[in-house]
Specification:
Largest sheet: 6 strands, parallel
Structural class: alpha/beta
Helix content: 40-55%
Strand content: 5-15%
Shape: globular
Number of helices: 20
CATH class of the largest domain: Alpha Beta
CATH topology of the largest domain: Rossmann fold
CATH superfamily of the largest domain: P-loop containing nucleotide triphosphate hydrolases
CATH architecture of the largest domain: 3-Layer(aba) Sandwich
Distance between the termini: 21 Å
Mean pLDDT: 95
Oligomer: single chain
Radius of gyration: 25 Å
């Protein structure tokens, strides 16, 4: 395994970093060795993670510049609009994003710009390279012609094939960034469950080779069940599992249904764009009267709460009945000037109803915040409020619930003490990257891993590397 000093001494190179093997620490330590490094990654959460590690290691801030690839390209294309020709505002379509990256590459062809890059940085480090598309790859190649550029990534975590991240490491990446080594120390499992870490590492190799995986042979819990909604998979032994927990399924809609089936015991999380929140905001803004606004709120309620059904001869909960009556009275004010204040009260009461269990807390919380912004007249529309709230989440990151259910796409880069994978055979139904999705899912677990499937043996097609 190459040391930070070995990596720093390289020219253009690629370092393979399996999940949980200390990539962020290595990047920070490599960045600290030179005059000033530029570290590029894909998400604001990634930027925050790297900056936090740099700070924790006591590395001077002036020694490391950290940015998203998109953010860095936005600045340089707008700084040199004559050659880069950026579009107005933030790119929205895939074509506009590709235009942005092409513009950045064009800007890097100008000698004055190249001089600025060369004088500003002595190394470029690019994180999560498996998530790069062809436009971002061309940007990396252009940078590598100015400053030694080292990329870090794991082909087995390349789960964004559907979004164009289909670069071949053998045929395309290593032609420009020669393979320099693989990180070999499984830091994520040290002091927690080293045997699990070793099993996940072995499983990674089997997945890469297209070999069968025996789910009943190893330091994991195998349950014979093909029912993703078998609640025993989620809750058996839960009292003995201290710490964070995640249930992982590839289908977002099924994740919401699973969260509902657990009655909020596991919380669903939202994609950063929070499309359902934006839809609610648009419906509110388009609703001129009380009935339509109430319909928008009721629709969101139905997708966020599990409502207890009374058993035969079971008496209604008096507190719940009183709150239902109060909600009816409050709803009458939705159509007036104080409609946002009434909506805010409805959101608050709904969370307190004894017979209701919230299973999409994140989107309900952000909806409540957006309504508060509108009620305080700090924004002109619910759409503006919702967009502002989600932008804050994007910039600062989100606090994960103690127990969550979500997809590998949303949980990638995170770790949990305990992971549950219901009906693992569903990974085989994914149209692309199914072996990689499975690897990302199992490698989130640090202490225990529970997998259910109808058959203890599972075989994935050999992934495209």
């Amino acid at each position: 395994m190459p040391s930070p000093q070995d990596i720093f001494a390289l020219g253009n190179a690629a370092v393979v970093a399996p999940a949980g093997h200390g990539k962020t620490e290595v990047i920070a330590n490599v960045a600290a060795l030179g005059r000033r490094a530029l570290v590029l990654t894909h998400t604001h959460a990634g930027v925050h993670a790297i900056r936090s590690r740099v700070k924790r290691l006591g590395i001077p801030q002036h020694a490391v510049a950290v940015d998203t690839i998109a953010g860095w390209c936005m600045r340089y294309t707008h700084a040199f609009p004559g050659i880069a020709r950026p579009c107005d505002g933030m790119p929205r379509t895939s074509a506009e994003w590709e235009h942005l990256y092409r513009g950045a590459v064009l800007a890097l062809s100008v000698s004055a710009v190249r001089d600025v890059i060369a004088s500003s940085y002595d190394r470029v480090l690019i994180d999560e390279y498996q998530d790069c598309n062809h436009g971002q790859h061309q940007l990396a190649i252009a940078l590598s012609g100015i400053v030694p550029t080292i990329i870090f990534g794991d082909p087995m975590q390349g789960i964004f094939e559907f979004a164009g991240a289909t670069l071949s490491w053998e045929r395309e990446i290593h032609n420009h960034f020669p393979f320099a080594g693989t990180l070999e120390t499984p830091h994520r499992w040290a002091g927690k469950n080293p045997e699990l870490g070793a099993w996940i590492a072995q499983t990674r190799q089997k997945l890469m080779a297209g070999e069968p995986i025996d789910l009943a042979d190893g330091p994991i819990t195998y349950r014979q069940s093909d029912d993703a909604f078998d609640m025993a998979t989620f809750f058996d032994g839960i009292d003995a599992r201290e710490g964070t927990q995640a249930a992982i399924h590839c289908n977002k809609a099924i994740c919401y249904r699973l969260a509902q089936a657990t009655r909020g015991g596991f919380q669903a999380i939202e994609e950063m764009a929070a499309g359902r929140l934006q839809n609610f905001a648009a419906a509110w803004d388009a609703s001129p009267n009380q009935d339509q606004r109430l319909a928008a709120i009721n629709s969101l309620m139905q997708e966020c709460f599990h409502v207890k059904q009374l058993a035969e001869n079971e008496a209604p909960n008096q507190d719940d009945a009183a709150m239902a009556e109060e909600m009816g009275l409050v709803a009458a004010d939705l159509g007036g000037k104080a409609g946002a204040l009434a909506a805010h009260r409805l959101f608050a009461i709904a969370k307190m109803r004894p017979n209701w269990r919230l299973f999409r807390r994140e989107i309900w919380r952000d909806g409540e915040k957006a309504i508060a912004e509108l009620g305080a007249e700090r924004v002109k529309s619910m759409t503006e409020a919702a967009a502002s709230i989600r932008q804050r989440v994007t910039n600062s990151g989100r606090k994960m619930p103690l127990r969550t259910v979500s997809t590998p796409l949303l949980l990638k880069g995170l770790e949990f003490d305990h992971v549950v994978i219901p009906n693992a055979a569903h990974f085989l139904g994914e149209r692309s990257a199914n072996a990689k999705l499975f690897y990302v899912a199992i490698s989130r677990a640090t202490q225990t891993l529970t997998i259910s499937a109808s058959n203890r043996l599972i075989v994935f097609p050999k992934p495209q590397i």
